[in-house]
Amino acid sequence: MHRETRQHTRARNTATVGGLNAPTETGDVDITPAVDPNIEESKSDKCRRVARLLREINLSFGEFSVAVCYGDDSLRNNNNCISARNSLYHTECLEQLLINSHRPPRPPSRGGPRPTAGTQAIDSFAQQVTCERFAKELEDFSEGFTIADKDLADTSKLKQYSSKLLHQRIQTKCPSLFTMLCNLTGTKHPEEGIVIQVASLAYRQNKHHNALQKYLSIYMQAQHLSKSAFFLLQQAGIVMSYSWTRKAIKVLDEDMRVLVEKIAKLGPLLIVHDNIRLEEPAASQRGDNQSVTDNGTAITVIHLPPSALALENCGAFKEFMHALNNSQMQGTAPKLSWQDLDQPQLLMYNRASNIHDILDLFQMIPELSSIDWNADKLKRPIGPKQLPHGPEHCVEQHMVPVVQINESSYSGNSQVVPYAIKKIGLHPIPEQIRLAMNRLFLWVGDQLTAQRCRQLQLMAHASVNAMERMEPFRFIFGGFHMLMALGWSILENFRGSNIGPTFANDIILLSRRNLEKAQAGKRGKDFHAYDEFLLHEIEAHMRGLFMHLTGCDTSEKLTAWALGHGAADLHQVASNVLRNHTSSQALVMDQSGDELHHLIIMRQRELLLYFSLRRAFKHGDVDRIEALLPELLFYFTGAGNNNYAQEILEFLQFITHECTPEIRAVVWQHGFMVNCLGRADSFLPIDQLQEHNNAAIRVCMHHNYMSMILSIY
Questions:
Q1: DSSP code of 107?
Q2: What 8-state DSSP symbol labels residue 275?
Q3: How far apart are CA 70 and CA 281, in angstroms?
Q4: Where is this region: Disordered (predicted)?
Q5: Dihedral class, residue 440 (left if φ above 0, else alpha if ψ from -120 to 50, else beta)
């Protein structure tokens, strides 16, 4: 009895698969439902029947799944198998199957350890698949991601490897890798870090995929990164080796020299130079242990666009200048007159632009944000000489090595000009002959530089050699230093005492620094300090005038006025401000006899002049600069700044009577401003560009001296 019971139990356990009861192995397989056919069978009962069937036919569940899912070619076109695969792949079942197989849930009733299931197999497979996919994406990304050493000096190729373009390329070529890195990164904008990481992976995958590494190596060397830090970044796949970088710098230096010489021979060119003072920190405690300054000259060569080709074929201009010289010797040369300055079209353009300058200042009032500033009535007129903008109009500049010549003297400038000509490869006799006969270079500097160079031309006027007479060069003063002189002059003229409505009182109330009165023998003040102060002053004046003319003495009333008035009303207020409060006409119309009110009108007029000139330079408005030059001539004459008054007079004489129409057009279009970013508001005077280059040189020289000191200690 007991033996029969044990045999029955053994047979029942043998027929159990995964906790599911299966029929005995004797006889035919019975797959009929075990319940009443009138009652709907549950999913778990169906699963038990399928498992029992697989057990009875000696087919494991794994073998069945593999065979149906493309493991057996004979089942590929079977309708039942196709239906089974579709039910798995076209629903959420596959995702749920992978989740449960990778990390099975704990038993719901008795607890216990979590089943291991297929965690290890799925992890291994996922790692293999992702590695293959990432490798394929990196291969697609790396295609063409290389640059030859001889092309490192090509700026057009450098633009292809900007952070923005590389980021877009990674998103397109490596979508999965990009998504994974973004998900792993906790920063808000991880784009630049991802660019470095992907470029590093591509470089470690293939050493020839090294375009970004080469550019970064040169940049790091320019920043004077130490050799040990170079080795660390090289191991990370971010830069090339230190030895390669040193060789590349020499090759790049030679390539840039060849490129500048090629550009100089083709032209057209504009050259700018300025004095630079470099501070050398003390490297020893012996002797003079204080910082030492050394004067040098920084030179930049600007390659002008084809619209300036008149400078390369200016034989007619040379003949015109020879005829003009003869007229000057005879005393019959034309001279600048009042009729040359009194041009109604420029005066009308200047007045319309003044109104829109005031509107720009009104736009800074937060309460007027509801005004439709895009209305036709508020659109600024555009003159025919307006400079174009866009990426294709960015300046192409090349810096010449700094030379230890102090250009703040006549002797220094007489050495700088031949040095620059030699460095750009125009010192051979054939090139000098061509330069003297057919070419003209615009040469920009600050007021003293332009004045000294023109004086050198006068000193050498009796020379028989055109190069010694410096005839191929036209020296023009820079607009940035003129703007600096204008701003500082306005600040000093209206500084006044520390009591009352004066600049000195405002400086104290606003706790401004570096705006003290200049003392003899000391350096001038920081331009950014008084530039910001003057802008705040004109903004405050315009807000006060607007509130006075509209009767809005509170912020709420200003908001209500903006909601109840349109663009035409705002334009009328701006015209009223110009006519009665910020112009010479307002001074004539003021019959009150109040000297303080008279002084306030003058101050507002000069502040508006400064704002207008500053905006004209920033937006490339050449017509406005042309219209403002006569006004600036009278201002500097009245303010006692004879140097800039003479500079403006010399320039107006040249542009009016001493050049041909073709050269005049080139000077207006290319002799004042350049655009480094290509935006509509990113123009800057040429001498300010040189100041930016000087600042970069000082940073590099500072790193050089710091490296020298560290090596000593």
A1: P
A2: E
A3: 76
A4: 1-37, 100-119
A5: beta
Q: Which residues of 355-390 are buried (b: 16+ CB within 10 A; e: fewer)?
A: bbbbbbbbeebebbeebeeeeeebebeebeebbebe
Q: How far apart are CA 400 and CA 279, in angstroms?
A: 20
> Residue type at 7?
Q
- Residue holding tokens 């002008």? 304
Specify which residues 396 forms β-bridges with: 303
- The 10s digit of each residue's pLDDT in 353-387 is 999 999 999 999 999 999 999 999 999 999 999 99
Strands 16-17 and 20-21: antiparallel
Rounded Cα distance between 273 and 267, Å, is 18
CA 347, distance to chain mean position in Å, is 36
With tokens 């090294």, the residue in question is 210
The enclosing H or E element of 383 equals: none
Tokens of 675: 């655009």
Q: How far apart are CA 604 and CA 537, in angstroms?
A: 9
Tell me the C-alpha distance between 121 and 95, whole Å.
16
State the first-to-last Cα distance of the chain, in angstroms, to the nearest integer: 100
CA dist., res. 713 & res. 709, Å (int): 6
From residue 289, how far is each of 23, 293, 518, 641 by CA, in Å? 102, 12, 29, 39
Average pLDDT over residues 219-231: 85
In the chain, the largest separation of any two C-alpha atoms, in whole Å, equals 148
Structure tokens belonging to residue 528: 């950014």
| Separation between Cα atoms, residue 293 and residue 290, nearest integer Å | 10
Least-confidence region, from 22-31, 394-403, 494-503:
22-31
Task: Find where tokens 């020299």 sit.
Answer: 257
Contact (CB, 8 A) for 684 and 618: yes
Structure tokens at 168: 């877009």
What string of H, E and C letters represents the secondary structure of 154-175? Answer: CHHHHHHHCHHHHHHHHHHHCH
Q: What DSSP string describes 418-481?
A: HHHHHHTT--SHHHHHHHHHH--EEEEE-HHHHHHHHHHHHHTTT-S-TTTTTTTEEEEE-HHH
Residue partners of 512: CB distance under 8 A and separation at least 6: 506, 529, 533
Q: Convert the pLDDT of each residue in 548-562 to its tens digit.
A: 999 999 999 999 999
The model's pLDDT over 631-657, given as tens digits with 9 standing for 90+, comes to 999 999 999 999 999 999 999 999 999
Q: What is the dihedral of CA 128, 131, 132, 134, to 10 degrees?
A: 160
Q: What are phi and psi of 350, to 5 degrees?
A: -65, -40
pLDDT of residue 303: 94
Q: Which residues of 603-628 are buried (b: 16+ CB within 10 A; e: fewer)?
A: bbbbbbbbbbbbbbbebbbbbbbbbb
d(CA 543, CA 563) in angstroms, rounded, equals: 17
pLDDT digits (tens, 9 = 90+) for 620-631: 999 999 999 999
Q: Residue 49: which of 27, 11, 21, 28 has the closest Cα? A: 21
